[in-house]
């Protein structure tokens, strides 16, 4: 894989998709439909998916593509593929909370190795460089040229006074019960894959997810967190979370800075 080209393409497509998403977000009204699993989908999901999937297929025709909005891609087999959630946090989009992201990632041998997470309503972009190091880009987000970037890294936290990040839309008692096992300094909530990025920048230390997610929800954020020195493990046994599972469904998991000693489930 030509990582320089990959990062350039993923970044550009995320910005183009973000423009379309924000165009629809700015409308007075937009249609919301329900998919077969009763999860919501909007014109923004579909338009962003069309931009990203066509761009990736043109640039990398020999690499398998899995995208949330195209059920035909959910039969893809193998451990190496591109994976896309064109609008992660659709509920946040619908309720106009701003915590939604564009997610594009490359999975190699079951591991997310490169990814981009772009939050267009918050003007925050995180991606892995070709060398695997994660950065946050600031500035005008020129589609043709990377602006000023800063390398990001996880906090040096140990188990004293942790900052915990949890979901805005999927918080439940099981999550609170697990968090209560730690010495927590403070908690913050965030939607979509931004939770991974907050750990990647050191703004948070721990993100437990005791609930359903799919691989397209997590791959890009996982790649960004890994490139900043963090880890994502299975909730039950703390082994690495891997990708390319038969149905692309994740088990419960924990994302964390490596200095945090994880408590048993």
TrEMBL record:
It is an enzyme of class 3 (hydrolase). GO terms for biological process: 3'-phosphoadenosine 5'-phosphosulfate metabolic process; phosphatidylinositol phosphate biosynthetic process; sulfate assimilation. It is found in: Cell inner membrane. GO terms for molecular function: 3'(2'),5'-bisphosphate nucleotidase activity; magnesium ion binding. Mg(2+) 1 binds at residues 68, 85, 87-88, 217. Mg(2+) 2 binds at residues 85, 88, 217. GO terms for cellular component: plasma membrane. Keywords: Cell inner membrane, Cell membrane, Hydrolase, Magnesium, Membrane, Metal-binding. Its EC number is 3.1.3.7. InterPro entries: CysQ, CysQ/Inositol_MonoPase, Inositol_monophosphatase-like, Inositol_monophosphatase_CS. Its cofactor is Mg(2+). It is a peripheral membrane protein. It catalyses: adenosine 3',5'-bisphosphate + H2O = AMP + phosphate. It comes from the Bacteria. Substrate binds at residues 68, 87-90, 217. Pfam families: Inositol_P (PF00459). Converts adenosine-3',5'-bisphosphate (PAP) to AMP. PANTHER family: 3'(2'),5'-BISPHOSPHATE NUCLEOTIDASE 1. NCBIfam families: bisphos_cysQ. Belongs to the inositol monophosphatase superfamily. CysQ family. This is 3'(2'),5'-bisphosphate nucleotidase CysQ. It comes from Sulfitobacter brevis. The gene is cysQ.
């Amino acid at each position: 894989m030509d990582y320089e080209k990959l990062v350039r393409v993923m970044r550009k497509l995320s910005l183009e998709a973000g423009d379309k998403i924000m165009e629809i977000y700015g409308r007075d009204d937009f249609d919301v439909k329900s998919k077969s699993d009763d999860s919501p989908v909007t014109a923004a999901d579909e338009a962003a998916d069309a931009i990203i999937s066509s761009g990736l297929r043109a640039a990398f025709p020999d690499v398998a593509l899995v995208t949330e909005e195209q059920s035909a891609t959910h039969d893809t087999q193998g451990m190496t593929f591109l994976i896309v959630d064109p609008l992660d946090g659709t509920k946040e989009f619908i309720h106009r909370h701003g915590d939604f992201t564009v997610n594009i990632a490359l999975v190699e041998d079951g591991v997310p190795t490169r990814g981009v997470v772009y939050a267009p309503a918050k003007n925050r972009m995180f991606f892995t460089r070709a060398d695997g190091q994660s950065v946050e880009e600031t500035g005008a987000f020129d589609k043709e040229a990377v602006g000023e970037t800063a390398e990001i890294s996880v906090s040096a936290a140990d188990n004293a006074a942790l900052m915990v990040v949890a979901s805005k839309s999927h918080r439940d008692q099981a999550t609170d019960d697990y968090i209560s096992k730690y010495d927590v300094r403070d908690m913050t909530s965030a939607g979509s894959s931004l939770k991974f990025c907050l750990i990647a920048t050191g703004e948070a230390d721990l993100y437990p997810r005791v609930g359903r997610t799919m691989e397209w929800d997590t791959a890009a954020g996982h790649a960004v967190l890994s490139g900043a020195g963090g880890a994502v493990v299975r909730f039950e046994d703390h082994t690495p979370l891997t990708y390319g599972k038969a149905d692309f469904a994740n088990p419960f998991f924990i994302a964390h800075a490596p200095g945090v000693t994880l408590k048993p489930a």
